[in-house]
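Today's session is about reading a structure prediction critically. Students often jump straight to the picture, but the first step is always the sequence itself: look for stretches that repeat, for charged clusters, for runs of hydrophobic residues. Only then move on to the predicted structure, which in these notes is written as discrete structure tokens rather than atom positions. Here is the chain we will use throughout the hour.
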Amino acid sequence: MKRPLSILFIGLVAGPFLRAQAPEPRTAFVRRLQAAVAPWGGPKRLWECQPGPVYGVVTLPGAKCEGLAVAPNGDVFTGDLTTNAIYRVSPWGQVTLHASLGSGTPYDPANPGWYFDGVKGLGFSVDGELWACHPNPISRDRAKHGIWRVGRDGQAELAVPLDPTMAPFPNGLTFDSQGNLYFSESWKGGVWKVPRGSRTAVPWADHELLAPLPEGGFGANGIAFKGGAIYVANTDQVTLVRIPILPDGSAGAPAIHASGFGWPDGVAVGPRGDLFLIGGWEDWQVIRVRDDGSWEVVVPGGISGAASLDFARAPSAQPSLFLANFWASEWGYPTVQKVEVCK
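Below is the predicted structure for this chain, in token form.
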């Protein structure tokens, strides 16, 4: 095989110099490299990249979409709680109705209860199946209340029925590497577990760090699995809580991993392993949380009303962050928004 001329040139010019030098220790090389990039913002990981601008993917007039999940092939799924419809959005913005979880609850500004019944968090299992949280704490319709499984053909079933008096508000869901499902319960505050292959949910983590405030609101909300632990956003307490998974599968002691970023909602794991969440006080933001609990705002605005987020991880595609904007119709934003993770 012929070598490129550029490689031959480098070898001719640099070869004698390199042979004359003693091998440089790895640590010394890294320090020189860090010093070289310091003028451009200090030492940074070479693979670190910043998100680009926010784009609109599609607008669904009148829809109230809270849950969002990205399939392995890059298709985006989002659920409208007013109709209980789950839509498939292709990477180029084509929308199709994928599934229906029964009749929804029409939007009624005069009746705050309209929000609570309907499809919420979405997530894909390790087998590539779509799952959905569907609380009915107002109507207490047991035929809908629980965790739904949606087949690739759009056929939906209530796979894990829940007792509305025990788990009134299943909100977000995630899967660990073994295929076990975990979901947050927001009204009482806690995390439940559905072992792989089971149709029964069991309480997994119950702690004051997962509870809502005494006046009532949302405790455990957005949820994600990363590195042998479950991470849960507590909206009322404005915290991100880490719960280790012990060797026997039980929950370890919950602890605050990060805080101070404004009311958090959806949580997702990025393509480089960092945690991302939606938070903010007056204007919603996307926040990246590092392993040490420090955090930074990476999308400072333009997403107000966003509730859930997930990443497209197609190997051949540029990593992209997608968001479901719940208040899109009222605030003039697209229903599904997109942020390029790397410029």
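Discussion point for the tutorial: The chain has two domains: 5-40, 54-340.
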